[in-house]
Amino acid sequence: MPGKRIWLLIVAAALTLVTAPAASAATSLPCNIYAAGGTPCVAAHSTTRALYSAYNGPLYQVRRSSDSHTASIGVLTRGGYADAAAQDSFCANTSCVITVIYDQSGHGNDLAYQGPGGAGGRDTPATATRESLTAGGHKVYSLYINPGNSYWRNGSSTGVPKGSAPVGEYMVTSGAHVNHGCCFDYGNSETDRRADGAGAMDAINFSTSCWFGGCTGTGPWVQADLEYGLFPGGSSKWNPQQRAFTDKYVTAMLKNNGTTRFALKGSSAQAGSLTSLWDGSLPGGYNPMRKQGAIVLGSGGDCCAQNINLSQGTFYEGALVSGYPSDATDNAVQASIVAAGYR
């Protein structure tokens, strides 16, 4: 029997080695990583998965056309992936739109579509079933924004950084569904939904828009929408460090200390490390920043209370954080995104 006991111990040790990484991964979701780095999420949005290992609430709300009833779509398990089957059941034999993307951070920064019945305005909610995919082997749906769709929230009193306070942002988007319309953004924006001057915005832009001209190639590029322009780097001149990201799934990052420095990064969301596109001074006239603390998704800052969004893009997940994340934190978030298994 001693031989059998030794064999059992070896098997148990092997199982421990196999299962340990999975347990570790469960605690390494983006907003856990940001919190550990001292830059906690103040808004966290996704239609595909939880961004905290302990999150067990709703991810987004759908509304069906047959009777205008709504349903909240949650996660399959705590810290897990979206329950697409619940959406499929609710939307069977009719069509659905996504009306709200819930904030997982606990700050209440839910994003509503910019139209009647939502946040007010001229836009409409995005179709809920335009794109399905798998994440972690589970069927999920994206937020597939076409011109005329966008989302917004006034987060100025619910934790979103304002003025020259530092902020970090990331989103997972797609290089396969883009245009040059203004402006496929995710991030900090104006509370009055008007163009309120240089530094009033601090949002990631992902598009083929070459705002100031002189661009190399056709994009799409990760740029900073700081209001009055999409900046590829620290000025209106083309930044030679820029590169296009045509991958189906793309990680886009922006961080800004609010006074002297900002950085842009990008990568495939399926593999690889982040590419540094800019890490240096803010453009002239943008230091200090004058952020207002609203959150926009899918449109520019001067949209869409009185006009209609012209951009298109895809959103899978993203977050805004308070503070200026370290490069180590950025890298860990990218590793979590790759581990999510977007396919």
Structure characterization notes:
This protein has a domain at 27-48 and 130-339: Jelly Rolls, CATH 2.60.120. Strand 2 and strand 3 (70-74) form a beta hairpin. The longest helix is centred in the first third of the chain and has 25 residues, at 2-26. The strands form 4 sheets. Strands 2, 3, 4, 5, 6, 10, 12, 13, 14, 15 and 19 form an 11-stranded antiparallel beta sheet that branches. A 6-stranded antiparallel beta sheet has the order 1-21-11-16-17-18, with helices on one face. It has a two-stranded antiparallel ribbon with strand order 7-8. Helix 2 (30-36) runs antiparallel to helix 4 (327-339). The protein is an alpha+beta fold and 343 residues long. The protein has helices at 2-26, 30-36, 84-90, 327-339; strands spanning 41-46, 58-64, 70-74, 96-101, 111-113, 126-127, 132-135, 138-141, 143-145, 151-154, 167-173, 185-189, 202-207, 221-225, 230-231, 250-256, 261-268, 275-281, 294-297, 313-315, 317-322.
The second-level CATH architecture of the domain at 27-48 and 130-339 is Sandwich
* Radius of gyration from the alpha-carbon trace, in angstroms: 20 Å
Biggest sheet overview? 11 strands, antiparallel
Number of strands: 21
Strand and helix order: HHEEEHEEEEEEEEEEEEEEEEEEH
Apparent shape: globular
Structural class: alpha+beta
Percentage of residues in helical conformation? 10-25%
User: What proportion of the residues form beta strands (DSSP E)?
Assistant: 25-35%
Q: List the uncertain runs.
A: 1-26
Q: What is the tally of helical segments?
A: 4
CA-CA gap between termini: 48 Å
CATH fold title of the domain at 27-48 and 130-339: Jelly Rolls
**What's the overall average pLDDT, rounded?**
93
According to CATH, what is the class of the domain at 27-48 and 130-339?
Mainly Beta
